[in-house]
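User: Please check token order:
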Amino acid sequence: MKKINLILAALVAVAMTSCVKFKTEATVDVEVTKAGKPAAGVVVYKFKDNGLGGEGLTQYKSNATGNETTDGGGVARFELKSPDDLDPSDVAGVENKDQATFFFCTYDAEGTRNGIVTVGVKTGDKKTVKLTIE
């Protein structure tokens, strides 16, 4: 009987994962400037507000859930994917619209945060935000 329950549980798990489409759900371009000019080669860190730490989570870059380096124009592109950043937009043929708050930060050589921007993102968004390094 235990074997049948185990096999049944495995089949249900396989069936459920085959119905979920994991893909890029939203895109955020972070334009980084320093002294009024685009800052190339700067690492921008991504934090998802999980409701527990809020902005305090960003005090240490080790808490980041991802990072990107700015290009020559000072832009770091973040592709927010399911299931890590946002919930899947399509589960078993049912559309889902998820929304989350993200913090994007830069840090100086000593690891002190020197720039932050907060943005609310929904499934399907393509946003551009400005982050100024102090």
In short: DSSP finds one helix and ten strands in the chain. Residues 6 and 12 are 10 Å apart (CA to CA). The helical segments are 2-18. The first strand starts at residue 24 and ends at 34.
